[in-house]
């Protein structure tokens, strides 16, 4: 046989081996929007029971110290790129519907890496990483299919977004299927996304691995006028929650938990659950108060969304796989949102890129060993603050929004009746049932596991440190997770070291472009009352 006839065979078999490898794990990444630290029951909440999410944590690995950026757009940009948001100019205030900005198109995104090694890639839900031009959209950036809202949030029933411009409110449909306005959709948006995700799983050709991201609207506020929206019968079930606002929020979280149950059940029905890695994470801390308040609670952590304090950035996170060897089911190493890209690629046997900020944590999580990460950086040059975590310490500088940096949400904990039995709720959940069917149920002694994620600290301290342009606050976040005690004058040399590290990061920043005045060409009235692309 001549060389020329052998070559195609070699190339072809090489292609089969590396690109169509059905043994690669499927990946299902579920992201919640503005979910608080204290809003899942595996973190100790007695108010909001999340048995499906909890079951994944108890049989997988719950993260004790998972950190994200403090705001939606920066977090999503970091998740998709493996880079700190300030390296792509995506830091600071989230994208508005009429803003012409996106993750630079020369930066490769998470789904592109998976697509390149043979995965089918699908996004169901929120994008919020650029939607003014077609080339910024999910289907131009590595996703085979897309259905969802392109901006920061959407009305749970109408699928509209309303922005208030100088001359009054403008409103339009914000839900799209690939490139087309999704006029055909009906129902509560969390159910809509669940059904679409289940359909992706049902229709999946199992000879290829699956990469599915489900980025829920829940439990973000539905808008700045409608705010909280949930089916009334679900709200009614939660009458034991004292605060009516919190009750509504809890119903939104319950629907999110139900969604996790349905998605895991669909994986089981398809027969692919045992070879699927599932991630459940929050994009940033809960938005207890302020614009788009959703009555989430990060209690006892200090601060909320848009703040560099722990409540804004230390968030819910877990990883589940039937093949994990971490029998502790809890990992307290630092894990950052930028770490998902290299960690998931590594889990799939793909060499992660090196030009990123994320580090591969797969082995550390799997074997319950030390985190590969010592430093985490948050820069919001739009609001005007920055923070750096270095070992056990976090330093905050600049001017975080003070009203977002206090102890909030403690007063939302009231009960006026008894919640259902936690243990029964777990045993009745769809995820527990699915785990049972593949012989992966967990020890019913999970309450001791739950104790590991509960943070005990003093959320009533009054004389707490706020930095300014000229002063910093330094906290030991391991010993003092509530950030009550400023140590900057105790450890001046550490402050100097950390400031120097932060200055280096500052110098690598692409400044956040302040939103220009609203681009009127984006007006939905010019696009059949949809928020469609308007440039090109
Ligand atoms: C979206 O695009 C993909 C890829 O072209 C296609 O397979 C899929 O059918 C499209 N979906 C819709 C609803 O048009
Ligand atoms: C867990 O350990 C077993 C036995 O050592 C090994 O075969 C398996 O690959 C490990 N799983 C992972 C995810 O590393
Ligand atoms: C959990 O922690 C609480 C309070 O520290 C303790 O009373 C309880 O016994 C612990 N439960 C388990 C199952 O370890
Ligand atoms: C702090 O710095 C920011 C950014 O340079 C500036 O906008 C702000 O006015 C300063 N604050 C004070 C109190 O000087
Ligand atoms: C324009 O919007 C209406 C709903 O208001 C929809 O039924 C129609 O299909 C849309 N037309 C186009 C061309 O998208």
TrEMBL record:
Any matching Pfam family: Sulfatase
MF terms in GO: metal ion binding; sulfuric ester hydrolase activity
Cofactor(s) in the UniProt record: Ca(2+)
Signal peptide residues on this chain, from the entry's feature table: 1-22
UniProt keyword annotation of Calcium present: yes
Annotated source species: Spodoptera frugiperda (Fall armyworm)
UniProt similarity note: Belongs to the sulfatase family.
Keywords attached to this entry: Calcium, Glycoprotein, Hydrolase, Metal-binding, Signal
Ranges of residues in domain Sulfatase N-terminal: 25-350
Superkingdom of origin organism: Eukaryota
Protein's UniProt name: Arylsulfatase J-like
């Amino acid at each position: 046989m001549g060389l020329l006839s052998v070559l195609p065979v070699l190339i072809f078999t090489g292609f089969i081996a590396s690109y169509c490898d059905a043994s690669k794990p499927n990946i299902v990444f579920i992201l919640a929007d503005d979910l608080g630290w204290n809003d899942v029951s595996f973190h100790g909440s007695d108010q909001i029971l999340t048995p499906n999410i909890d079951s994944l944590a108890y049989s997988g690995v719950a993260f004790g110290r998972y950190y994200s950026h403090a705001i939606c757009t920066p977090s999503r940009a970091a998740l998709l790129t493996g880079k700190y948001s300030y390296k792509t100019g995506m830091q600071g205030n989230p994208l508005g519907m009429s803003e012409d900005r996106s993750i630079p198109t020369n930066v490769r995104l998470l789904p592109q890496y998976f697509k390149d090694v043979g995965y089918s890639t699908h996004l169901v839900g929120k994008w919020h990483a650029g939607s003014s031009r077609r080339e910024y959209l999910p289907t131009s950036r590595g996703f085979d299919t897309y259905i969802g809202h392109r901006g920061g949030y959407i009305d749970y029933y109408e699928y509209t977004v309303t922005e208030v411009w100088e001359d009054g409110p403008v409103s339009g449909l914000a839900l799209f299927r690939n490139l087309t306005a999704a006029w055909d959709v009906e129902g509560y948006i969390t159910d809509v996304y669940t059904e679409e995700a289940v359909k992706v799983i049902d229709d999946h050709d199992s000879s290829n691995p699956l990469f599915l991201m489900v980025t829920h609207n829940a439990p973000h506020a539905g808008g700045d006028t409608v705010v909280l929206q949930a089916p009334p019968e679900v709200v009614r079930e939660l009458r034991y929650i004292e605060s009516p606002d919190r009750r509504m929020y809890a119903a939104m979280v319950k629907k999110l938990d139900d969604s996790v149950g349905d998605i895991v059940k669909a994986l089981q029905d398809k027969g692919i659950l045992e070879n699927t890695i599932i991630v459940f994470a929050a994009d940033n801390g809960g938005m207890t108060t302020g614009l788009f308040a959703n009555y989430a609670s990060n209690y006892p952590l200090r601060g909320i969304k848009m703040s560099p304090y722990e409540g804004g950035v230390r968030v819910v996170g877990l990883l589940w796989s039937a093949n994990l060897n971490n029998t502790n089911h809890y990992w307290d190493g630092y894990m950052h949102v930028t770490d998902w890209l290299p960690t998931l690629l590594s889990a799939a046997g793909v060499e992660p890129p090196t030009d990123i900020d994320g580090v591969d944590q797969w082995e550390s999580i799997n074997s319950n060993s030390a985190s590969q990460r010592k430093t985490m950086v948050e820069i919001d040059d739009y609001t005007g603050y920055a923070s750096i975590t270095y070992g056990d310490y976090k330093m905050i500088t600049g001017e975080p929004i003070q009203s977002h940096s206090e102890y909030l949400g403690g007063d939302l904990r009231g009960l006026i009746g008894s919640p259902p039995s936690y243990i029964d709720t777990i045993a009745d959940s769809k995820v527990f049932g699915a785990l049972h069917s593949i012989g992966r149920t967990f020890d019913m002694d999970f309450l001791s596991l739950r104790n590991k994620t509960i943070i005990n600290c003093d959320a009533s301290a009054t004389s707490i440190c706020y930095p300014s342009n000229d002063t910093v606050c330094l906290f030991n976040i391991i010993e003092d997770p509530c950030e009550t005690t400023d140590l900057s004058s105790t450890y001046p040399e550490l402050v100097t070291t950390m400031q120097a590290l932060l200055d280096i990061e500052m110098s690598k920043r692409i400044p956040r472009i302040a939103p220009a005045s609203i681009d009127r060409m984006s007006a939905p009235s010019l696009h059949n009352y949809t928020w469609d692309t308007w440039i090109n």
